[in-house]
Amino acid sequence: MKTFTPKPGDIDHKWYVIDANGLVLGRLAAKIAQVLRGKHKPIWAPHMDCGDFIVVVNADKLRLTGRKMLQKRYVHHSGYPGGLRHTAITRVMQDKPEYVLRHAVRGMLPHNRLGRKMLKKLKIYTAPEHPHTAQKPETLNM
């Protein structure tokens, strides 16, 4: 018996919408990464993009557990001496809340060309509306 390998024609990319109001950041990011990779499908293959599209609304209403709102920091280095920069998550949530979720999901995807292709299928909005109603997305319960 031969091992089944999905062809690009076998893969059906669906659209899902998630309301992030009150959901925990890490648990939501893990579920999104699983659906973006396609690991919830029986035809999943690690070398192919079998995943679905995800639309997240109300991304500014995410929740963090414990003392992360006070202690979590994003670190960036410019590459120059003394170029280490820290940004508190409270400031990032005020300025660009969609970055927090995208950054968490990106860390859970493969760090190669395939992972970058999967991340492009994630659409994040801070408002309760989104412009993807023509794709008829299904609600993904969390």
Which secondary structure elements does this structure contain, and how are they paired or packed?
Layout: E1 15-19, H1 25-37, E2 53-57, H2 68-71, E3 73-77, E4 84-88, H3 89-95, H4 97-106, H5 113-119, E5 122-124, E6 138-139
Parallel strand pairs: 1-2, 1-6, 2-5
Antiparallel strand pairs: 3-4
Helix pairs in contact: 1-4, 3-4
Overall CATH architecture of the domain at 15-64 and 97-139 = Alpha-Beta Complex
Question: What is the overall shape?
Answer: globular
Class derived from helix and strand content: alpha/beta
CATH superfamily of the domain at 15-64 and 97-139: Ribosomal protein L13
Could you give the order of the helices and strands? EHEHEEHHHEE
Question: How many β-strand runs?
Answer: 6
- Please count the helical segments: 5
Strand order of the largest sheet: 5-2-1-6
Strand content: 15-25%
